[in-house]
Amino acid sequence: MINKYNAKISGTGMYVPTKILNNYDLEKIVDTSDEWIRTRTGMFERHIAAENQAVSDLAYEATLKALEAADLRARDLDMIIIASVSNDHAFPSTGCILQKMLGIKNFPAFDISAGCTGWIYGANIAKLYIENGIYKNILLVGVEILSKITNWKDRNTCVLFGDGAGATIISRASSSDISQFIDSELSADGSNYELLIQAAGGSRMPASQQTIKDNKHTVYMEGNKIFKLAIRSMYTACHTVLKRNNLDIHSIDWLITHQANMRIIDALGKKLRIEDDKVIVNIDKYANTSAATIPIALDESIRNGKIRHGDLVLMTSFGAGLTSGSLLIRY
Ligand SMILES: CC(C)(COP(=O)(O)OP(=O)(O)OC[C@H]1O[C@@H](n2cnc3c(N)ncnc32)[C@H](O)[C@@H]1OP(=O)(O)O)[C@@H](O)C(=O)NCCC(=O)NCCS
User: Fold this and answer.
1) The domain that contains 302 carries what CATH number?
2) pTM of the entire structure?
3) Whose CA is nearest to atom 7 of ligand 1?
């Protein structure tokens, strides 16, 4: 397919709630230790949403920053995509709620459910709409409040997650622009979907007193079974894109992987043979914010001057589904 236009990232923004929960705070909640969490995951702090905050509130704050960075107004947007598994409501979509908060209407707004890979899935959708010439500016937000669907009695999961939002404006690039989306790869393997799930609240297991008693409305994860799959799937997604574009890993300036576990990030970096100092890591500050990890890391790295215009940035993620994907851009 010959693209009419190129897509590019024209602005990014992030927002994390003010409350911070560190490993020592967690030691008071469950049978864990700072030492275990640090050595097994690389995490130290995570941000936790206030009682009255929903994902649309976090998404809104991040969006204002992204619009400012892109030098656009809300009315310049042509589409809103929200990547989240912890939406304001089962329905309507958070995309529509955010549209109302921004005071705009009469264009498509929707959510996608691809777990931690949600932002990569959304970027792929946005890329196609921009390249076909259908839209000029698409808002994509990866946002989660996993703290509200966490079982705070389960040490296997409650130490792992944090709340936050990363907003990105994906726009049509001008013909002279060096910034552009180069390629993207998506995949899913539903055969292991039960390994990472919020079981109750849908049509399979509607909410009942029993589901609440059994903690079925919270995140269940068999982390050790997912561990190797995460490394393998992200490696395949990166390798496919590199190979398809005849690129050597050494030509990549930055690798941003999903921030689920420092040991996964390290193992993936080694398998890809990328230099350690090209791998962006912020897991110590935010833990796993699911669909928000990549856009948060992207925004931070752009704002702190690590990622500069013209850099080749490879991003990859893995999550519930089990989904995986990669996105290669020249920023
Ligand atoms: C979740 C994860 C950090 C657990 O690390 P792990 O090294 O696999 O640990 P295990 O689950 O095998 O548990 C090892 C031991 O630590 C214990 N443990 C688990 N959580 C603990 C905690 N917070 N504090 C102390 N001990 C803990 C377990 O009970 C187990 O004890 P046992 O050996 O006595 O039974 C890791 O498996 C992981 O990151 N998985 C992938 C996550 C992922 O990519 N998810 C997809 C995207 S969200």
Assistant:
1) 3.40.47.10
2) 0.96
3) 40
